Amino acid sequence: MSNCSNNEKLDRERWEREGSSGRPPWLKVRIPVNQDRKVNACLSDLALGTVCQSARCPNQLECYNKGRATFLLMGPSCTRNCAYCAVSHEKPAPLDKDEPRRVAEAVERLQLRHAVITSVTRDDLIDGGAEHFAETVRLVRAKCPSTTIEILVPDFGGDEEAWAIAADSEPDVFNHNIETVPRLFGKVRPGADYDMSLALLDFVNERKPKLATKSGLMVGLGEEISEVVEVGEDLRGVGVNMITVGQYLCPENSKNIPVARYVTPEEFDGLRDELFGIGFEFVACAPFVRSSYNAEEALEAMENSD
After folding, report:
1. What predicted TM-score, i.e. pTM, was given to this entire model?
2. Long-range interactions of 75-80: CB distance < 8 A, separation 24+
3. Phi, psi of 245 (to 5 degrees)
């Protein structure tokens, strides 16, 4: 195991000796001793949600301690029912038209250098919420012109007009997660389509060739590493230049799809090297990596590689 302490090695040996039951030792979450409450206070004051909370991200406390959060637009309820996701699937509420303004205010209050904005999927809306994304980007840009902006969008039901609205809002990074390999799409992402996700990213790269595009996957759902590399090749084929890969963790006390296996840190290291080898400008590949985790550093690393 790369870059691990003697204690971590002993924990891993014990885990393997005892039959590899439960989460492996490299997936232990370290809770910060001194927790900074300013993000929670800001979100509460402005009545905003984050995907950090809704999706039960293991990095939430770390990111909040850094004064960061990924804003979740359009309410906490998603109209899709993906097998891996912890987000609520109750009937969504009408759009909150004031939400984009409050997100911009939160970005200013938190003095974010890089704002990540995502949403639930809203198939009930005519444009899937694309204009809501665009308005949020415009207001953040107007209020905080030095802040870079990343949008992590759903597929908008394959609506190219919605794709154009989101892309034309001029974010710095356009992110759409493909999530898994084609063989598992029907099981993991019912209601979504692998080729549609590729088509969305291809459309954005054709329309905005200077825009950084990004996608992410989970591993541990039953895929082979070779299949993940093939997805990487497909993403590079449509011009995506940033990729993230992390371990799927089934939310506790949930009915989500179980973890098929835990990918080792060595496998992540090897996969990272393969993905760099097929031409990605930025690769984040490790157990706790999530699509918006350390997104600010990701954009900076890619820009510095030019």
Report:
1. 0.88
2. 75/49, 75/120, 76/49, 76/120, 77/120, 78/120, 78/121, 78/122, 79/120, 79/121, 79/122, 79/123, 79/124, 80/121, 80/123, 80/154, 80/189, 80/190, 80/191, 80/192
3. -140, 125
pLDDT per residue over 192-231, tens digit each? Answer: 999 999 999 999 999 999 999 999 999 999 999 999 999 9
Cα separation, 179 vs 155, in Å, equals 12
**Is residue 10, in this structure, part of any structural domain at all?**
no
Q: Is 137 in a helix, a strand, or coil? A: helix
103-157 pLDDT, tens digit each: 999 999 999 999 999 999 999 999 999 999 999 999 999 999 999 999 999 999 9
Mutual angle of helices 194-207 and 225-237, in 10-degree steps: 30
Q: Are 62 and 32 in contact (CB under 8 A)?
A: yes
Given this model, what pLDDT does residue 1 score?
A: 44
227 occurs within a structural domain: yes
CB 212 within 8 A of CB 242: yes
For residue 290, what pLDDT is reported? 85
**Which domain covers residue 63, as residue numbers?**
18-304
CATH (domain of 132)? 3.20.20.70
Domain contains 174? yes
Residue 116 lies in a domain: yes
